[in-house]
Amino acid sequence: MSQHTDHGHHHNTAQPRRHQHQHDDIDFDWDVMGPLLERNAELSRSQYEEAARWIAGLPTAPKVRRVLDIGSGPGVIACLLAEVFPEAEIVAVDGTPALLERTRARAQRLGLGDRVRTHRADIPEGLAELGEADLIWVGNALHHMGDQRAVLAGFAALLRPGGTVALVEGGLPPRQLPRDIGMGRPGLEARLDAITAEWFEDMRAALPDAKREIEDWSALFAAVGLHPQGTRSFLLDLPAPLSEPARDHVIAEFARRREMLTEALTPEDIAVLDRLLDPEDPAGLRRRPDVFLLMVRTVHLARRG
Q1: Which of 86, 91, 119, 252 has the smallest number of CB atoms closer than 10 Å to its CB?
Q2: Structurally, what CATH architecture does the domain formed by 30-176+207-239+295-303 represent?
């Protein structure tokens, strides 16, 4: 499992950031992917920090002594959680050794090595070995589980009395360009979102033990014996002109979608994407002045009574 940057309505049909899934049949170059994942998570740091401080400030929040970060990727969120909950042990749970190594290195650099530790596990198979926790952070990972209800029940069983599950799911599709970019048919990103939604449905249907669930997360929490504690959305608003790291992120996103969705794209949209990805084209993403990044992430909370 690893953390993936999120896209589309469900926010993670893009490059790896916070998904949780098997990588046995995918040959990632983690020396390249690891820094990319860190950069992407760092761009969204303000959203995650605001969400974590919301959790910490709840009147019902218990004393947080142990946190499980499910699908921790390169450890950006795990280290952030260690800062927000300074008395807690943070356990970064991921199935990719190279990403867990990046987590350990990041924690050491930030002086958090004594409180951030790593645990290699694939979920749901490795749930029982994780141990109890006061906070379980599940960032864009649950929808990569075939039986989401069963996995959520497994998380609930790990919570100490009063403990919290923080589920990052949903939000809004990112926007990075105006509707009309001066080439091709207007509405390119909306068309990419529609194709991505179809991809997401196919992905869900192919998961082991896949079961359809109405995405009413409060009802799903209640169904596994947890008490819903509220939902909030957090905005990332990076206006044009973008910083170079943010622009690099946008370019990587469009490149990934160009590769992943090729078979479903029209020739006209492929031609537009190729121009956008051409670093020498004045209308490309590298040079155009109107590229921005607008993203909304939604966090759903529930507590064990």
Answers
A1: 86
A2: 3-Layer(aba) Sandwich (3.40)
